[in-house]
Design goal:
The complex is a heterodimer of chains A (328) and B (396). Chain A is mainly alpha-helical and 328 residues long. Chain A has helices at 42-46, 51-61, 71-85, 95-128, 138-152, 165-171, 202-209, 219-233, 243-277, 286-300, 320-327; strands at residues 2-8, 17-22, 69-70, 160-161, 216-217, 307-308. Helix content of chain A is 51%, strand content 6%. In chain A, helix 3 (71-85) packs across helix 10, helix 4 packs antiparallel against helix 9 (243-277) and helix 5 (138-152) runs antiparallel to helix 8 (219-233). The longest helix of chain A is centred in the last third of the chain and has 35 residues, at 243-277. Chain B has 396 residues and is α+β, with helices and mostly antiparallel strands. Chain B folds into 2 domains: 26-275, T-fold; 322-395, no CATH class. In chain B, the strands form 5 sheets. A 9-stranded antiparallel beta sheet of chain B has the order 1-2-6-7-10-13-14-15-19, covered by helices on one side. A 3-stranded antiparallel beta sheet of chain B has the order 3-5-4. Chain B is globular, with a radius of gyration of 25 Å. The chains are: A mainly alpha (328), B alpha+beta (396). At the A-B interface, strand 1, strand 2, helix 4 and helix 9 of A face helix 5, strand 12, strand 16, strand 17 and strand 18 of B. Strand 1 of chain A pairs antiparallel with strand 16 of chain B.
Chain lengths: 328, 396
């Protein structure tokens, strides 16, 4: 597969390096390490720290894109962040400056993720519409649902329950530190900001389909929810769902979720500001920001080598239920 | 002369100066700038005034229609504008719409009270409004009962500005013939729009960038500066431009320049193109004869429709020389795996210190997987989501 790019440039080749990045299918397995119960990671643990949260930390501060964050990189990134927040350039970040900056960053992440998820809904429609006629019938929708239900309903009574979730949580890459033999986990990716409930996970499946709130989903319950969703998605009531109806239903859910995320995240940001500011009037100084930064860096660098990588042990989160409670 | 008389005289002089300043052309609350040869400037301004006053009455009629939901004895001009609204909305498949007035007002209120609007509710409202109808004939314009009930407000934004300039250009031609005034150097500016009746090198200033030198050959130009089109709602900075089918501000809006052979075309196309992802906008610009567009992303990357640079090249203003042409050949390795998907790929040029100088190619359109191109994502991609999907377009 060869491609040619013809272009004109005013630069001489001798001064340039041409870079090609190719997303490969292979990834290197991160080394595993023993869990470290460490009070200094309380900040991370309190926020449901996972490999995804750490991936976000690395992505934000890894200036040279080598997959790790040195203390020098972190300090530079932190100082740049403070400068970016300090809109009036007085060396202090007041509450509005802090929240404005956070909101801007949050909205970018929401928009970016939202765009991907809306596009993904088009792909999902096509996979459900098995005869590719552009119409999703109830039979097609139900057939797809049954596959999902069977995947999760492993117990003999045919009920999908969260009981096994703690074990699954502990076993999931990134949530514990012990990988199964011969398993090569994918490199952790940044945690989703929207955290859209999805039938791809047991947790999401129950969130969507648990009609009576008993933390489990029976076959009858599932069919009822499935039918309700199908009927409400078919807004023109012609008996089938077209791609626009399907995407609209999903987008509305996505936007309701985004609204909740905005409210919750801005509330948390305000709490963080108050802590950083120590209830003073003048705003956060570089020194205060630095002290807080030191705590954050130390909370991720749990093997104490001065560098945060995917090889560091993760802060201990006691259980799935606790993590979920924290993340809400 | 006594001191009292001096004061009186000075006061009269000041009043005279202020009165003259107030005579500068204005239409619907916006300055309207007409420039011509210095010898003809004042004559044109004076001769155009009656037409500007007529257009002011059209603006007032539109205001009345929005206020009362109906209007008797509409002007020919208003009827023409309403027809154009429908035509452009159809032609651009709702990417342009005159039916966004109520939604714009919602956002103006949000700007004041600092609360973001509910996106799902707004989408429903926007989609309803796109379908609302009016009846228009020589005797009356009447918003349908449903349109009145739903609070439809017409906002002609880019169409209005462009149409006004085209009207004035036509009027200027008539005046030129009638009064034997040279028309060669006349230009008009109204809102974001510039209309030139000559071939000229025009300098465009976009905040944070070096001025761009553009050749305009009796064309209209719209400049939508990203920074100047932001509004603050609570802690959020959002674009003032709304997506017609969503009622939500355009996300990752670039700065956008649109050049077209008529001002209406430039005004309408700019309003529509700014609401699309850059790649779709440039594709759309290429479909419409006489329209060219340049998008400049938040991080200062330029993407242009196919003909955007051609005028500049023809005029010898291109920074590139033929001998600086080079070719890059790359090969994507074929992987012998059961499930093969097209890989994500990025190619860019850096200086000897690793600083990105030129982006050449990015394959793949999901930020989820582009993120896996860690080096590219860290250095380029993550700062600017609007880049995704753009690199098949000419950029500089």
């Amino acid at each position: 597969m060869k491609k040619m790019i013809t272009m004109k440039a005013s630069l001489t080749a001798s001064t340039l390096a041409l870079l090609v990045a190719l997303a490969g299918c292979q990834s290197t397995a991160p080394k595993t390490a023993a869990p470290a119960a460490d009070d200094r990671s309380k900040h991370q643990a309190d926020h449901g720290a996972s490999a995804g949260h750490r991936a976000a930390f690395i992505e934000d501060f890894d200036k040279d894109a080598d997959g790790k964050v040195t203390r020098a990189e972190f300090d530079l990134g932190r100082a740049a962040k403070l400068k970016a927040m300090d809109a009036n350039g007085n060396g202090l970040v007041d509450e509005n400056e802090y929240l404005d900056h956070f909101a801007q960053d949050l909205e970018k992440r929401i928009s970016s993720e939202r765009k991907d998820q809306v596009e993904q809904s088009v792909v999902r429609f096509k996979s459900i519409d098995t005869n590719n006629d552009g119409k999703m019938t109830w039979d097609e929708y139900w057939a797809s649902g049954q596959k999902t239900f069977k995947h999760f309903a492993k117990s003999a009574d045919g009920v999908v329950t969260l009981k096994a979730k703690d074990k699954e949580w502990d076993a999931a890459p990134g949530n514990n530190q012990q990988q199964g033999a011969g398993v090569t986990p994918a490199a952790p990716i940044r945690s989703s900001v929207l955290r859209m409930p999805s039938s791809h996970s047991l947790e999401g499946f129950i969130d969507i389909n648990d009609l009576n709130g008993d933390q489990q989903v029976t076959a009858e319950e599932f069919k009822q929810v499935r039918r309700d969703i199908f009927d409400s998605t078919d807004t023109n009531k012609d008996g089938w769902v077209n791609p626009e109806e399907y995407t609209l239903e999903f987008t509305n859910r996505l936007d309701r979720q985004a609204k909740q995320v905005r409210t919750a995240q801005m509330k948390q940001a305000k709490v963080r500001y108050d802590i950083l500011n120590g209830n003073k009037d003048e705003g956060i100084s570089l020194e205060e920001f630095g002290v807080s930064g030191s705590r954050i860096f130390a909370g991720w660098d749990l093997n104490d080598d001065g560098v945060v990588t995917n090889d560091d042990p993760l802060p201990k989160v006691k259980s799935y239920a606790e993590a979920k409670k924290i993340s809400r | 002369m006594t001191s009292k008389r001096w004061i009186l005289f000075s006061g009269l002089l000041l009043a005279l100066i202020l009165a003259n300043a107030a005579k500068a052309l204005e239409l619907a609350g916006l300055p309207l700038v007409v420039k011509a040869d210095s010898t003809n400037q004042a004559k044109f301004e004076q001769a155009l005034k009656p037409r500007v006053e007529q257009l002011e009455r059209v603006a007032q009629q539109l205001e009345q229609l929005n206020r009362d939901g109906k209007l008797t004895a509409p002007s020919v001009e208003l009827l023409e504008l309403l027809t154009l609204c429908e035509q452009w909305q159809n032609q651009l498949h709702n990417a342009f719409s005159c039916r966004l007035g109520a939604l714009q007002k919602d956002w103006q209120a949000a700007e004041i009270n600092g609360e973001l609007l509910d996106r799902a509710a707004l989408r429903q409202k926007a989609r309803n409004h796109l379908k609302l109808q009016w009846r228009a004939d020589k005797t009356e314009v009447h918003l349908s009962n449903e349109a009145q009930k739903e609070g439809l407000q017409l906002n002609l934004h880019g169409l209005w500005h462009g149409w006004v300039l085209d009207q004035l250009a036509t009027e200027a031609k008539r005046i030129s013939a009638q009064q034997k005034l040279a028309l060669d150097n006349i230009s008009f500016r109204y809102g974001d729009l510039l209309l030139l009746n000559k071939t000229d090198l025009h300098s465009v200033v976009i905040e944070g960038l070096s001025p761009l030198q553009l050749t305009l050959d009796k064309q209209a130009l719209v400049v939508l500066d990203r920074q100047k089109n932001l509004r603050k709602v609570g802690h959020y900075w959002l674009s003032r431009k709304l997506v017609s089918k969503e009622g939500w501000p355009v996300e990752f809006a670039p700065s956008l320049l649109v050049r077209a052979s008529s001002a209406v075309q430039a005004g309408v196309m700019a309003q529509a193109l700014i609401t699309m992802p850059i790649s779709a906008a440039l594709e759309q610009a290429d479909k419409v004869t006489g329209v060219e567009a340049l998008a400049i992303t938040e991080t200062g990357m330029f993407f242009a429709s196919q003909e955007w640079y051609s005028a500049q090249l023809a005029n010898g203003t291109s920074p590139w020389k033929p001998e600086q042409r080079f070719q890059i050949e790359y090969e994507i390795p074929a992987l012998d795996v059961a499930e093969y998907r097209r890989p994500y790929l990025a190619i860019w040029i850096t200086d000897s210190e690793g600083k990105s100088i030129r982006q050449l190619q990015v394959l793949g359109d999901s930020s989820r997987w582009l993120r896996e191109l860690r080096s590219w994502w860290r250095k380029i991609g993550r700062a600017d989501d609007s880049l995704i999907g753009c690199f098949s377009w000419r950029h500089a």
